[in-house]
Amino acid sequence: MAMVEPIEPINRAHETEPVKKVRPRYRDAKESEADGLEVSFVAKTLKRAVEEAKKIPEVREDKVEILRQQVQNGTYKPDLGALAKILYKAGFGK
Question: Whole-model pTM?
């Protein structure tokens, strides 16, 4: 049977160095007072896009009406291949 080498005892934990306190320099403190927040162009554009998207109704009544008429007339022909892909990606059929 092979011998397992002993693990070095953890006896040097008390030998850690003390944490040094760091004082901010006057120049750094003065510069931080002038710090500010600037919102990027991308963030502003994204905010506007979200606000505009919130104005769009969740249900597009015009699209629903067109589909309703197609179903009533018997002319509604859904893309079954696309539907199958959507259902497969959603976890159905696995």
Answer: 0.34
